[in-house]
């Protein structure tokens, strides 16, 4: 952990969001965007995630999964199911999906496997 990362828990939300935006705009280099995820406010993280979806940044999206709200998780999962982000697969979400969502997926996959051509 860098000296900077050690300060994240003590920084104001707007400072952390500004840093995240600068990293994404490539104004700041040498800091990994995903190190900010646990410390961003939910709304700020959602904004970052939406940008990552637009840029199809599967690397950082994968690291954001544990910190996503359930609504954001559903949004990203839907994009992944449609093949919108190649570097991210449905399996990355399994530990974080609700029991109902997992059950629904299981039933869908069984149904798909049972269809004979």
Query: What is the count of distinct domains?
Result: 1
Mean pLDDT, to the nearest integer, reads 93
Q: Could you give a short account of the major beta sheet?
A: none
Basic shape: elongated
Considering DSSP H and I runs of 4 or more, what fraction of the residues is helical?
55-70%
Q: Work out the radius of gyration.
A: 17 Å
Counting DSSP H or I runs of 4 or more residues, the number of helices is 6
Order of secondary-structure elements: HHHHHH
Q: What portion of residues belong to β-strands?
A: under 5%
Gap between N and C termini: 53 Å
SSE-based structural type: mainly alpha
Runs in which pLDDT lies below 50 for 5 or more consecutive residues are none
Strand element count: 0
Structure description:
- This protein has 117 residues and is mostly helical.
- The chain has one domain (3-114).
- The protein contains six helices and no strands.
- It has helices spanning 3-7, 13-24, 42-54, 58-64, 70-81, 99-114.
- It starts with a helix and ends with a helix.
- The mean pLDDT is 93.
């Amino acid at each position: 952990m860098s000296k900077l990362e050690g300060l994240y828990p003590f920084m104001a939300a707007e400072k952390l969001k500004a840093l995240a935006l600068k990293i994404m705009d490539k104004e700041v280099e040498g800091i990994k965007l995903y190190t900010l995820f646990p410390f961003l406010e939910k709304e700020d993280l959602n904004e970052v995630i939406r940008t990552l979806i637009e840029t199809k940044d599967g690397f950082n999206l994968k690291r954001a999964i544990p910190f996503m709200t359930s609504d954001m998780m559903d949004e990203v999962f839907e994009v992944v199911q449609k093949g919108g982000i190649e570097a991210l697969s449905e399996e990355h979400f399994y530990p974080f999906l609700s029991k109902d969502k997992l059950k629904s997926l299981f039933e869908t996959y069984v149904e798909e496997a049972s269809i004979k051509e």
